[in-house]
Write a structure and sequence with these properties.
Layout lengths: L6 E4 L5 H12 L3 E6 L3 H13 L3 E6 L5 H15 L4 E4 L14 H11 L1 H16 L4 E5 L2 H5 L5 H21 L5 E7 L5 H4 L3 H8 L10 H12 L10 E4 L6
Parallel strand pairs: 1-2, 1-4, 2-3, 4-5, 5-6, 6-7
Helix pairs in contact: 1-2, 1-10, 3-5, 4-7
The protein binds NADP nicotinamide-adenine-dinucleotide phosphate (NAP).
């Protein structure tokens, strides 16, 4: 699964799963765009790590919820690397509250990043993906979009929303040879999981047949496969990477 000469944009890749995806793609020869919102030093460290492993990378600041910042990032990326081959819509946030405590602002903030950000980024790179030899749109969803989860009505809605979006884009892109797929991780050891209270983490762990949380590497390897030429005949799919959880 060689990604040499492939330019890959990974949104929200200064930390967590995005960071794991970006470094893995870079190690396999890709030119990687390390997008971040505010973690500038962390993004610079990811760029450094990729360059040391033999790949090329740039850091690109943009809040994915802001269309003007995403357009500026797109211009910068096209100037630096030309056409984009792979877009990984990974950036995502949570604001967890049971529904009776959730405000309209909590709802809108999560929608604007997790779905609005996917719209903005796909919008600016769409023509690139159509022009690429084998364009790849990869949306990072979640098992929570499949199961629902107490305290995550806003987040779960955004993650389910990606299924309809991905399936539709798969159909609309099919004539170009580009594919669109979702990777739906289970629970992964990142800052996002750290925010979940320990007693809830223990409860979740009991539902995972493989009896451990995922590492970012578990997710990155699957994303690399989806990004590669080897996955050319797979489109419109949801790949569950969740240790065998039921949904
Ligand atoms: P994380 O550790 O909290 O990292 C989030 C990343 O997204 C950071 O790099 C952050 O950059 C960036 N980000 C947040 N808001 C952004 C915005 N508006 N614009 C641009 N970048 C933004 O999260 P994670 O756990 O790695 O999750 C990554 C993705 O996987 C999310 O879509 C999440 O829903 C999904 N996921 C996570 C899990 C899990 O258990 N962790 C499970 C299933 C799915 P800054 O630091 O610069 O803000």
């Amino acid at each position: 699964m060689n990604l040499e000469n492939q330019t890959c944009v990974v949104t929200g890749s200064s930390r967590g799963i995005g960071r794991g995806i970006a470094t893995d793609l870079g190690e396999h020869g890709a030119n990687v765009v390390v997008n971040y919102r505010s973690s500038e030093a962390e993004a610079a460290a990811v760029v450094e790590e990729i360059r040391e492993s033999g790949g090329d990378a740039i850091a690109a600041q943009a809040d994915v919820a802001k269309a003007d910042e995403v357009q500026a990032m797109c211009d910068e990326v096209n100037d630096e690397f030309g056409n984009v081959d792979v877009l990984v819509n990974n950036a995502g946030i949570t604001i967890d509250k049971k529904f009776d405590k959730m405000t309209r602002e909590d709802w809108d903030t999560v929608m604007n990043v997790n779905l609005g950000g996917v719209f903005n980024c796909t919008d600016v790179f769409y023509d690139d993906l159509k022009r690429a030899d084998h364009g790849r749109l990869i949306n990072i969803s979640s098992v929570v979009g499949q199961q629902g989860n107490i305290g995550q009505a806003n987040y779960a809605t955004t993650k389910s929303g990606l299924f309809g979006f991905t399936r539709t884009l798969a159909l609309e892109l099919a004539h170009t040879g580009a594919t669109a797929n979702c990777v739906a991780p289970g629970f992964v050891e990142t800052d996002m999981l750290e925010e979940v209270p320990e007693r809830v983490q223990e409860k979740i762990l009991r539902q995972i047949p493989l009896d451990r949380f995922a590492t970012v590497e578990d997710i990155a390897g699957i994303v690399r496969f989806v990004a590669s030429e080897e996955s050319s005949y797979m489109t419109g799919q949801v790949l569950g990477v969740n240790g065998g959880m039921e949904w």
